[in-house]
Structure formats: C-alpha cells, structure tokens
Amino acid sequence: MILDEIVKILKTGEKPEPTIAQEKENHILRQAKIVISTLNYCGSTRMHPLKSSTAFIIIDEGEN
Questions:
Q1: pTM of the complete model beyond 0.85
Q2: Structural domain boundaries of the chain?
Q3: Is 58 helix (H, G, I), strand (E, B) or coil?
Q4: Could you report the per-residue pLDDT of 15-61, keeping only the tens digit for each?
Q5: What is the pLDDT, as a whole number, of residue 2?
Q6: ∠ CA(26), CA(31), CA(35), 5° rounding?
C-alpha cells in the first residue's frame, strides 16, 4: 500500500518527500482496526501511532 502511494506521487511528476514512506505507513496504521504483526515489529517505535487508536493487535510468533 505504501509503495502504491509513492508510485502515484511519482507518476504525477512530483518529487516525494524523504519521509513519505513513514508518513504513509503511519496513516495506514492509524486507520487500521486490526493489525497482524510479529512480536519484534509490534515492539518497534513504528507501532507507536497505534497506542490509542487500534482495537486489536494479533501477534504471530509461530514456531518454525
């Protein structure tokens, strides 16, 4: 989804801001009602936007 947004910007001829991927990711995460994540990603600072807006976070840490 993030890549799709960046491609749309590039097709318009605009130069994307260096922070566009992080901004798009934050937007997607804020809109999510359910997120499926690994434990490692869930503990990262990238998940901070979810602290007060997400109903569920499902963590998948299955054994290999």
A1: no
A2: 2-59
A3: strand
A4: 888 888 888 888 887 777 777 777 787 777 877 767 666 666 677 76
A5: 79
A6: 85
| Residue 9 buriedness (CB in 10 A; 0-12 / 13-18 / 19+) | middle
Element (H, E) at 8: helix 2-11
* CA–CA distance, 14 with 11 (Å, rounded to integer): 8
Provide the 10 A C-beta neighbour count for residue 15.
Answer: 9
46: closest CA among 61, 27, 33, 62?
Answer: 27
Taking the C-alpha atoms of residue 48 and residue 33, their distance in angstroms, rounded to an integer, is 15
* 50 token code pair: 């979810």
